[in-house]
Specification:
The protein has 332 residues and is an alpha/beta fold. The chain has 11 helices and 13 strands. The structure holds adenosine-5'-diphosphate, iron/sulfur cluster and magnesium ion (MG).
């Protein structure tokens, strides 16, 4: 088993490339190839909350969908506990389907409107043939309490349309957690919810990790949400890894100009007006290079126009387990 800081790796993405073809326009032009993930490598350690942060369209959901096998990569490999996932079949695949789960962004779309709360949460147990009717009922009750749907009696007979957005997301989380999974992808689970409800959902995720030692991949566009929840954070931009480190390293001592721009964009409470501390983002994008250079070149104020437009910066370790893909990470 691969070890990292004394912890085992549960999920490893190894040089993953995922491409899509856009549909093309109404007038019949050919679809363009979109590289959603460009040679992304990540090791997620058992028991951690790992944050994947980037703006919309950066490839976060794609990464989550690849891990739960809703998509297949064009290149690269994905490992679960050191075994390649692509080779899973039969019982191995069935176990995988129980152990690896995903919570989706939109609780309105992820629940079947025809199923009551009880049926929604017990259905995965039925599908995976876990326990008898009595044991399933106990498991549903326990899980409902742990996600704050309490007392369960008040909720079991309701249907999704009779629940608030926050309650629906709790049901969606319960449906995943009732299977006692080893690994959960939570894809922007609170982006459709109010801030106060979001904070409650974050606390449920933290409690879940403490109680069941589940490993979480928390996907978000918000560095402040990642800071609140995550042990480590990876920042991606247009499918490329920009920075990876502990939450403290990435947020207190960011090294990549893109991470710094994300931090500058955070609301600064208690300050009058916005203070751009790092100021690494160009107000107007510059023209793209004809060559393949740094993915952030067009928006980076720090860029050296020759070097950054001609060469792709590789991910390098700058401090202990803090990785950055920028030629000027030290002084950028
Ligand atoms: N099914 C698809 N078909 C075509 N393009 C897609 C598809 N899914 C995602 N993409 C594209 O891939 C890129 C990454 O998307 P996504 O992973 O959803 O990003 P994020 O979750 O960070 O917003 C985007 O450019 C998006 O438009
Ligand atoms: S390599 Fe150059 S363009 Fe890319 S982030 Fe660093 S300074 Fe900016
Ligand atoms: Mg997404």
């Amino acid at each position: 088993m691969k070890m990292n800081n004394g912890k085992e790796t549960i999920i490893e993405l190894d040089h993953i490339v995922k491409k899509y073809t856009s549909r093309g326009s109404f007038f019949g032009t050919h679809g363009n190839e979109i590289i959603a993930l460009n040679k992304i490598s990540i090791k997620i350690l058992k028991g951690e909350i790992f944050g994947l942060v980037g703006e919309s369209g950066s490839g976060k959901t794609t990464a989550g969908r690849l891990i739960v096998r809703l998509e297949k990569p064009e290149e690269g490999r994905i490992y679960l506990n050191g075994s390649e996932m692509a080779g899973l079949k039969g019982k191995g695949l069935k176990d995988f389907r129980r152990k690896i789960q995903m919570i989706f962004q939109d609780p309105y779309q992820s629940l079947n409107p025809q199923l009551s709360v009880f049926d929604t949460i017990s259905e995965p147990l039925v599908i995976h043939k876990i326990g008898n009717a009595e044991a399933r009922e106990d498991a549903v009750w326990e899980t409902m309490k742990s996600v704050g749907l309490s007392p369960p009696d008040d909720f079991v007979n309701r249907y999704p349309h009779q629940l608030s957005g926050g309650q629906r997301q709790r049901v969606a989380i319960a449906r995943v957690m009732v299977l006692n999974p080893d690994f959960v992808v939570a894809d922007e689970p609170t982006s459709m919810l109010d801030a106060s409800i979001s904070a409650q959902i974050f606390n449920i995720l933290i409690e879940m990790r403490e109680k069941s030692q589940v490993t979480l991949l928390f996907i978000t566009h918000s560095l402040s949400a990642a800071r609140y929840l995550c042990d480590r954070i990876a920042v991606i931009y247009k499918g490329n890894m920009m920075e990876l480190g502990s939450a403290d390293q990435v947020i207190q001592k960011p090294r990549h100009p893109y991470t710094k721009a994300l931090i500058d964009a955070l609301p600064k409470f208690g300050l009058s007006g916005k203070v751009n501390h790092y100021n690494t983002l160009l107000p107007v994008e510059r023209e793209a290079s004809e060559h393949e250079g740094c993915p952030f070149f067009t928006r980076c104020r720090v860029a050296n126009k020759t070097k950054c437009s001609l060469e792709i910066p590789l991910l390098k370790e700058t401090d202990d387990s803090h990785w950055v893909a920028c030629f000027y990470a030290e002084n950028g």
